[in-house]
Write a structure and sequence with these properties.
The protein is α/β, with parallel strands linked by helices. It has helices at about 5-15, 20-25, 30, 40-60, 70-75, 85-90, 105-115, 130-135, 140-145, 160-165, 175-180, 195-200, 225-230, 245-250, 260-270, 280-285, 310-320, 325-350; strands at about 60-65, 80-85, 100-105, 120, 155, 170, 185-190, 205-210, 235-240, 255, 270-275, 295. The protein has 3 domains: about 5-130 and about 305-320, Rossmann fold; about 135-215 and about 325-350, 3-Layer(aba) Sandwich (Rossmann fold); about 220-295, Rossmann fold, CATH 3.40.50. The chain is built from 18 helices and 12 strands. Helix 4 (about 40-60) runs parallel beside helix 17 (about 310-320). The relative contact order is 0.15. Bound molecules: 1,3-dihydroxyacetonephosphate and iron/sulfur cluster. Iron/sulfur cluster binds next to helix 8.
């Protein structure tokens, strides 16, 4: 486990990180992207870190890839590229810099490493896991293959490199249906998210069998809760992630990946919306959409929230928390991820 105690003292020897109203003023253009959700006092604390990280990342030849669930000071303050899992994976194949700092969870950093074995991939906290990735091992994939002989295995990218290597192809929340439909088989095994699998099954012509994993953030929402929001305010637009249960998805006006959710809200600009997903999603687009009121009901992903400005600065300063993948495993995992990227691109161009 990353011991957070010495981080502050190590950083204090090299950087002046005291809250600063002057630095906050110098970075007001960045702050303008989050002024609805971050107070000026908080920004005075964040600004010294943001300035130090942006300077250091140039010195280290690093690029910062950030998931849509990162907090606003990371998302708007230091990220070079923000997106959903598929966008981050594709972007990882295009990175010119030698160092990738993944502001997201471990499976995302592993995917970047799988796609870029020659690059240094850092994650600011190795403990940033995922309940889905933890729910299945390569042995679980083999069990599913034994139960459903001949059926291809489509594994969500929210899995370890070993699981990806044991699968036929990966998928993300934005292309799961396309990938399943592209399989040359009437029966398809989906792992490890039971709800994503059930949601895909509702739209697919295939028989889908699945592993019983779930996301601890999205499975907390209930259909009754969503209905209560709508009864309270019939104008509200409900936007959900496909890791939610099918009952919740059935109540939503739109369901899609994190980036698809953002795009839907940007396109439709509802007067009021409830984003049925992780808390930072609404925070990250609140300033860009002043006309939209975001209902403040969200669930926090404890894994995503392990990534902080302090840990990013420490990781870049020490060049530590490097993600490595056994080359033999990486080669097989790369085939599954690359097949997903290729099938996804083919479906987009069809
Ligand atoms: P997206 O691919 O939609 O960004 O989802 C990743 C994730 O972990 C959602 O919980
Ligand atoms: Fe995993 Fe859920 Fe957190 Fe996404 S939100 S990283 S699926 S636990």
């Amino acid at each position: 486990m990353l011991d957070v105690t010495p981080i502050g003292s190590v950083l204090a020897e090299h950087y002046d990180l005291a809250p600063s109203v002057d630095l906050a003023e110098d970075t007001r253009d960045i702050y303008a992207r989050m002024s609805r959700v971050v107070t000026p006092a908080d920004w005075a604390m964040f600004a010294p870190y943001v300035i130090a990280i942006n300077k250091l990342k140039k010195e280290r030849g690093a690029v910062i890839l950030a998931h849509n669930y990162m907090t606003p000071e990371i998302y708007h303050g230091i990220a070079d590229f923000m997106g959903d899992s598929l966008q981050l994976a594709i972007r990882a194949t295009e990175v010119e810099q030698d160092v990738i700092v993944q502001c997201g969870v471990h499976f995302m950093a592993e995917t970047s490493k799988i796609l870029n074995p020659q690059k240094t991939v850092l994650i600011p906290d190795m403990e940033a896991g995922c309940s889905l990735a933890e729910s299945i091992t390569a042995a679980g994939i083999e069990d599913m293959r034994a139960k459903f002989p001949g059926a291809p295995v489509v594994s969500y990218v929210n899995t370890t490199a070993e699981v990806k290597a044991a699968s036929d192809v990966c998928c993300t929340s934005s292309n799961a249906l396309q990938i399943v439909e592209a399989m040359d088989s009437d029966t398809v095994i989906m792992t490890p998210d039971q709800y994503l699998a059930q949601n895909v099954a509702k739209q697919s012509s295939k028989k889908i069998v699945y592993w019983a994993g779930s996301c601890i953030v999205h499975e907390m929402y209930t259909a009754e809760e969503i209905r209560a929001y709508r009864e309270n305010d019939p104008e509200i637009r409900i936007v959900a992630h496909p890791e939610c249960t099918p009952d919740v998805v059935a109540e939503a006006d739109f369901t899609g990946s994190t980036s698809a959710m953002i795009n839907w809200v940007k396109r439709n600009k509802p007067a009021k919306t409830l984003l049925v997903t992780e808390c930072s999603m609404a925070s990250n687009i609140a300033d860009e959409l002043p006309e939209v009121e975001f209902t403040k009901s969200c669930n926090m992903c404890p894994f995503m929230k392990k990534i902080t400005l302090e840990k990013v600065l420490y990781s870049l300063h020490t060049m530590t928390q490097e993600v490595t993948v056994d080359p033999a495993v990486a080669e097989k995992a790369r085939a599954s991820v690359q097949r997903m990227i290729d099938l996804s691109a083919a479906a987009e161009n069809a």
